Amino acid sequence: MIDNTFAAIKGGFEPEDRNRALEASRFAVDTQRSTRLNKSKMITRTAAELLKAMVEYGLHNGYEQVVFITDARFEKILRFCGLSVERIGSDGSHQSVSTVAGRFPTDHQQLQRIARTCGLWEPSLCAPVIPGEALREGEQDVKAAVV
Prior knowledge:
single chain, 147 residues, alpha+beta, Aminopeptidase, 4 strands, Autoind_synthase, Acyl_CoA_acyltransferase, Autoinducer synthase, transferase activity, quorum sensing
């Protein structure tokens, strides 16, 4: 979808292996019905759980990154959650950006950062990639805890 609908925004970016990149081009949360995380009024628990679930899903299914199209405000939310976001394109200048293309890796470090930043220590998916206890232990040997 990103290639066909948003080709101009993504610039010349091409994932090395398309079969190892998830695409995310739509993301909506009812902010009136979802509780805010204690740390900030910027993000809801539901949004943070969905982002964490994307990383868990990617890890579980062998994806290396999420490539996304969103607005600049949501890009800030991704960063607030601790994700290492790389902007790969936009539809305007930095001062007036409304739509951006970007990517973030689906790796253990990203999962750890979201858990720590948002306080989401329990798995978001039914079949967790990393048990909640392993997330709490820190980064020392998280890879050994993969189920």
